[in-house]
Structure formats: C-alpha cells, structure tokens
Amino acid sequence: MTESNTADRQPEEPAETTTESDVTSTSEPESGPKRRTIALDEGYQFGLGVFETMALRSGRIMMLDRHLNRLRKGAEALGIDVPSDDDLRWTLGEYLHEADLEGAASAVVKIILSEANTVITNRENPYDDWGPDRALHLGWCTTRRNERSLFTYHKTLNQGDNILEFRKAHDLGLDGAVFLNSRGEVCEATNANLFFVRDNRWYTPAVECGLLPGTVRQRVCEMHHAVEMHIRPDDLAGFDACYATNSLMGVRPVAVLGEARFSVSPYGLFGR
C-alpha cells in the first residue's frame, strides 16, 4: 500500500450550518441563526432515521428527484412517515432562500428525517478544489459489510462503521477504504460506490453483495450499461481501471485499491 500525504489527499470537512427543523425551539436568540431543539426520538437515540447529502450547483440541487426517491424508500423501510415530495421540495426551497443559497455556485445540502424531526443543513463541498485528474488511493476495511442487514441498503443514520473505517484510512494517508461482505466479495467504499472497467466494459458490485445504491451509481449504470457482478479482491488484477462515485465528488478515478493498481483516466466531475 503506497504512502500518501494526508493533508493533500483528504479534503477538510467544513462544519455544517443548521437553520431548519420542524421541532419548535424552546428559546430564540435575539440575533443570529435560530436555535432549534431536536426531539429525542428513535432517530436521534438509535439511528432510526434517513438522510440525503446533495450537491448544489448554481443554486440548484442536483438529481433531486433521485435523492427524494431514495429518501422515501429508506424512510418507508424504517416505518417513518414522510412528507409528500411537493412538501419536501417546498421546505428545501424555503431553506435555500433563508440560507441565501439560491444563487450559490456550490454547496452541500443535507436533509435528515426521523419520526419527529426534519432537519436541513448546509456546508461547503470539500471536493470543489480537486482537479479532474485527482485520483483516489483506497485501502481495505477491517470491518465486514453485513449483506443481510436492512440498514446496508438504505441511507440511514447508522453510519458508525463507515465513519470509523474512514478515520482509520485517513490515519494511513488514504482517501477511504473498501468493504468486503461476509463472503469476501467487494461491496463499496466508506463513502462511495465502485466501478471497474475492462476492455471498455463497465462492471460494478451487485447490490445484493451489500451496498447502498447511490444516485450517481444509478446514473453511471444507465450511461454505460454497467454489468452487476460478484467481485473478489483477487479479481481486481483483471481490470484496467476503477472509478469511485458519490453525489459530491461525482466520478473519480481510483489509482490504488489495496495491492491493486489501475491506470488513471480522468472521467470529469459528473453533473457539472
């Protein structure tokens, strides 16, 4: 595994600004952002909630339909009542207005739903200063992904495995790490889906292996007619290239995954 400079490889995560919740505040400051109270529901206490992290560009939330669809599916799987798409769009629109983001060049907007809370936050996109040829260096997670768990397939507030494995990778100077499932098959990275290319044909780990189907993953599958398959670490040497995808960084080349090395061809920032 090659060494890399942590400061150069890992973007800083700006603090999120929270200015919206459906829970009434117990006290309001005379000036500055409104303080909101989070209800101690099962989302806050036990992670029974869902969220979407969305890229905003030129004042517009990218792929909003796909994000809302996934948010709804996750909430329904956890038995959480969800506002209508029209209501969510209105709430997001009001938030963008109040946060002065309607004309913003770039930002990250996050919506969090639990049984008693709807919270929206924003922050800077940590990938904005990355050049299109910036390639990722990834390792392997020590934790196995549970392909039989409901939480694996939805974007829930149960993110402990992802966060702890990401921190381990960060400490090693890497951009992230990749989970294997209980059968030793490749699943996904700590914050991204994966694609592998061989002879110009695109392949991606099958959803049933245990992964969160990302919004950008869905789009790339459509564009490249990607084939879902079961991939093991020993198979990686047979691929020419590897890409990682998520809604904030788009499509990024992967140069290193464990002991595997890939040729790097910039794909460009998806959706720009």
Topology:
Layout: H1 6-9, E1 17-21, H2 42-46, E2 50-57, E3 60-61, H3 64-77, H4 85-98, E4 106-113, E5 118-123, E6 136-140, H5 160-171, E7 176-180, E8 186-189, E9 193-198, E10 201-205, H6 215-224, E11 227-229, E12 241-246, E13 250-257, E14 260-261
Parallel strand pairs: 6-7, 6-13, 10-11
Antiparallel strand pairs: 1-5, 2-3, 2-4, 4-5, 7-8, 9-10, 9-12, 12-13, 13-14
Detailed description of the structure:
- This is Aminotransferase, class IV.
- Residues 1-36 are annotated as: Disordered.
- One of its GO terms (molecular function) is transaminase activity.
- Belongs to the class-IV pyridoxal-phosphate-dependent aminotransferase family.
- Residues 16-30 have a biased composition (Low complexity).
- The protein folds into two domains: 13-123, 2-Layer Sandwich (D-amino Acid Aminotransferase, Chain A, domain 1), CATH 3.30.470.10; 129-261, D-amino Acid Aminotransferase, subunit A, domain 2 (D-amino Acid Aminotransferase, Chain A, domain 2).
- It has six helices and 14 strands.
- A hairpin with a 2-residue loop joins strand 9 (193-198) and strand 10.
- It starts with 5 loop residues before the first helix and ends in an 11-residue tail after the last strand.
- The strands form two sheets. Strands 6, 7, 8, 9, 10, 11, 12, 13 and 14 form a nine-stranded mixed β-sheet that branches.
- The chain has helices at residues 6-9, 42-46, 64-77, 85-98, 160-171, 215-224, and strands at 17-21, 50-57, 60-61, 106-113, 118-123, 136-140, 176-180, 186-189, 193-198, 201-205, 227-229, 241-246, 250-257, 260-261.
- It is α+β, with helices and mostly antiparallel strands.
- Helix content is 22%, strand content 27%.
